[in-house]
Amino acid sequence: MTNLQPLDFEKNVARALKDKQLIKNIKSAMDTLVLKRKNIFSNTAETEQLRVLGNSTKTNALSKLPELLERLEKKCTQNGIKVHWAETIPEANQLVLDIMKSHQATRLVKGKSMVSEEMELNAYLQKNGIEALETDLGEFIIQLNHETPAHIIVPAIHKNKDQISKIFHDNIPDAPYTENVDELNAIARKTLRHKFKQADVGLSGVNFAVAETGTLCLVENEGNGRMCTTVPGVHIALMGLEKVVEKLEDLPPMLRLLIGSATGQLITTYVNMITSPRKEGEKDGPKEVHLIILDNGRSKIFADPQRRKTLYCIRCGTCLSHCPVYNRIGGHAYGYIYPGPIGKILNPQVEGLEAAGVLATASSLCNACEEVCPVKIPIPELIRRIRNESYSKDPASTVEGHGYKSNWIESLVWKIWTFINTSPRINAAGIKVLAALGLKLPKAGPLKQWTRYRSTPEFAPQSLHELVKQNGVHNE
Amino acid sequence: MSEQSRDRIFSRLYAGCRQPSISVPQPVPMPAKTYSRTEKIEKLKTLMEAMRTEVHVTDAQNWIHKLEEILRKRKLKSLVYPPQTTLGDTLESQWKNSAGDLPQLIPYEKEIEGFKDQLFNIDAGITTTAGAIADPGALILWPSKKEPRLISLVPSIHIAVLQAEKIYSSFLEVMQKENWSAKMPTNVVLISGPSKTADIEMTLAFGVHGPKELIVLVVEEY
Question: Does A239 touch chain B (CB under 8 A)?
Answer without folding.
Answer: no
